[in-house]
Amino acid sequence: MNTSRDNFGSRFGVLVALTGSAVGLGNLWRFPYLMGENGGAAFIIIYLIFVFVLCLPIMYSEFVLGRRSQTNVFGAFKVLAPGSKWSIVGLFGVLASISILAFYCVVGGWSIEYLVKALCFDFTRQGTVNYETMFSDFVSSPVKPVVYHVIFLVMTAAICLGGVKKGIEKFAKIMMPLLFVMVIIIAIRSLTLEGASAGISYMFKPDFSKINSGTLLAALGQAFFSLSLGCGTIMTYGSYVSKDENIMKCSVITSFSDTLFAIIAGCAIMPAVFAFGISPSEGPGLVFITLPRIFAQLPLGGIIAILFFLTLLLAAVTSSISLLEVVVTYLLEEFKIKRKTAVFLTFFLILILGTLCSLSQGVLSDIKLFGMTFFDFFDYVSSNILMPVGGLLIVLFVGWRLGKANLFDELTNSGKLKVPQWLLEITFFIIRFLAPVTIAVIMIF
Ligand code: TRP
């Protein structure tokens, strides 16, 4: 075992770091609006099936590759399949992480601006504010969102600079419990509003007539994104986890916490949306346009707005550090450079790409890559190409190249953990057949 590598210090540290990666904009921004657009409860049920049947074994796969190889996404394949072309899969992970970061940091920057607005009680001040133009004027302006994106990126890089144990783990240990407490407080406020029950039944009474192939696609894409799969994030964190840790248990707890957080976030948002007579299918503007409108009229709305945007910001940071760490660990180990240098290089790369993404909402909106703005391009390429292809190749590698014996060996810590044989067999079946076929079918659509 490589003793010079930084490592997580405790099981709690591993769990909060993994959950920190999983819980992010995906839970607070994407999950509620996708649920709103795809029929509420029916979407949740399909999402749960995807998470626990399909994505959990994919998470095991990434975890196994990282921990078994004890190295970065690219190096892992060189260690586990020497002399083969499989390490290209690692490059997919690095590219996917870069392209997610490019737009993720921009949205992270938006949450700083909205936190500042909330702290100035801008939403609850008297007078008529048009939240739609407030949002579109802000994101399309040339300076402010770029500056906020840089601040967000500086926060992310500063934590990664501290390393795995003293940076990432330490930050996540404080933030994750705080995030859960804050989102629960917001949910209680929302659930106790008059008229909240319509939102609750929307989330928990399924209407299966709403399900179509689009719902399936949205649910799988969301499950992948929310669990941080397909980019080597779990692989990278897994490579910093001790050989005594129980991979299956850690993955189950992470998936469960992430899903729980998404559902609590739903309970924080949907009841309020219904109580104020707003349509649940507001789309991506839900968090930045609809919610401020609600905060303006909500008793204690000013405080809740601060809590909400603080939660959004911190959840986004604990995720962006996991993405940055994929690139940093890769540079660090493959090019034998210092952590500091690796963090700075990644920082500048994302700074440039993120600035382009941010400006593409305004002054650069006419520049198109394959008919898309920079922002949409990075979102599209990562969500529709790099992540699913990365995920597909990872399960194919584990199912067909790494093989059953190695997989079981790693999942059971060489037989030290007692895992029922049938569970291992089902897991292997899903990794070898079900997961690749499902991802391929969904990608073709
Ligand atoms: N899971 C995070 C969220 O829900 C985002 C994220 C972090 C991510 N790392 C990732 C998404 C890796 C895909 C792949 O916001």
Explain how this protein is built:
This protein is mainly alpha-helical. The protein has a single domain (11-444), classed as Amino acid/polyamine transporter I, CATH 1.20.1740. It has helices at 11-22, 25-37, 41-69, 73-80, 87-119, 131-140, 144-161, 164-191, 197-204, 213-226, 233-238, 247-275, 290-297, 301-334, 339-359, 374-411, 421-444. It is globular and about 65 Å long. The N and C termini lie far apart (43 Å). The model has no long low-confidence stretch (mean pLDDT 94). The chain binds tryptophan. Tryptophan (TRP) binds at residues 21-22, 24-27, 100, 225-226, 228, 230-231, 233, 319, 322-323, 387.
Name the descriptors.
single chain; 445 residues; mainly alpha; Amino acid/polyamine transporter I; 17 helices; globular; binds tryptophan
